[in-house]
Amino acid sequence: MVRPLTSVKMLIEISTEDVMKISTQSKTTKNKDQDNLYSQPREAISGFVFDESVVKVFEDMIGRSVPGYATLLSMFPVLTHSFIQPDSHCYDLGCSLGASTLAIQQGIKVEGVEIIALDNSLAMIEKCKALTSEHRSQAKVTVRLADICESEITNASLVVMNFTMQFVQKEAREPLINNIYSGLNTGGAFLLSEKIKCSNSMEQDRLTTLHHDFKKANGYTDLEISQKRSALENVLITETVEQHVCRLKEAGFSEVLVWFQCFNFVSFLAIK
Ligand SMILES: C[S@@+](CC[C@H](N)C(=O)[O-])C[C@H]1O[C@@H](n2cnc3c(N)ncnc32)[C@H](O)[C@@H]1O
């Protein structure tokens, strides 16, 4: 029997070869946790929400929808460990099931670190608590139901937002980044991963086609792709790389760079 991608831990421990295997498996796996939320025609498509039905299939959904997701997470321990200071906080903003929390945790080499994982979906938080409690590490992990736009960031050496800013109201993004910047200690890092758009329409069309090809290669049908796209239409709001870089620099980050890109999915590293 083909085994599906069943745990967050697996996601962060897999190699690129494994990712390819998983992509192939996902096409054929028939399992209760497989994402088929948009497989049947719907009369009306309502806006996407991170409710219980999404939480149930989230691991499968994100792995088959976000190109490079597993590779990106597998780099987190390497990328983040040198920024994490003793007796400081690491934040995982929009933690979902805690995949980023678990990845950061693996890289922590110093004492007195607390990872604070926040999400405003109760269903996500409940499952995240269960999954993260299965793992022991040097760092304490606190998982909390909270709106990241109204949360305090203090004594932070690392803040991660992995594909969450895109769901935050556009006007709330600048204050949120300013809050992150002021809560970070000098030398601390902000890791921001986002789906992006291009100002050049040919590039935008090319990247969209590649993204849809990726989803089709992972077993999604044209109907699933188009219905999910409609559901995300006014919910997932993308910006260009330039807009992100500009906002990060304006907040005061001294170094801002793109360290990862797979099609229209980009990750930035910003250092205070
Ligand atoms: C695409 S998922 C993030 C994936 C996750 N970071 C990972 O690495 O697997 C986006 C998450 O952000 C959460 N979210 C969106 N807006 C939020 C807000 N204002 N406050 C807290 N969480 C939020 C959603 O509930 C959802 O779980």
SSE string, helices as H and strands as E: HHHHEHEHEEHEHHHEE
**How many strand segments?**
7
Small molecules held by this entry: S-adenosylmethionine
Distance between the termini: 48 Å
CATH architecture of one domain: 3-Layer(aba) Sandwich
Strand content: 15-25%
CATH fold label of one domain? Rossmann fold
Rg over alpha carbons: 18 Å
Largest sheet: 7 strands, mixed
Describe the global form.
globular
Number of helices: 10
Low-confidence stretches: 1-32
**What's the CATH C level of one domain?**
Alpha Beta
Helix content: 40-55%
Name the CATH superfamily classification of one domain: Vaccinia Virus protein VP39
Q: What can you see in these coordinates?
A:
- With 272 residues, the chain is α/β, with parallel strands linked by helices.
- The protein has a domain at 78-196 and 237-271: Vaccinia Virus protein VP39 (Rossmann fold, 3-Layer(aba) Sandwich).
- 44% of the residues lie in helices and 19% in strands.
- It contains 10 helices and 7 strands.
- It has a 7-stranded mixed sheet, with helices on both faces.
- The protein is globular.
- The protein starts with 7 loop residues before the first helix and ends with a strand.
- Bound molecules: S-adenosylmethionine.
- S-adenosylmethionine is lined by residues 50, 62, 94-96, 99-100, 118-121, 124, 147-149, 162-164, 167-168.
Brief summary of the model shown:
With 272 residues, this protein is an alpha/beta fold. The chain has 10 helices and 7 strands.
Descriptors for this entry?
272 residues; globular; 10 helices; binds S-adenosylmethionine; alpha/beta
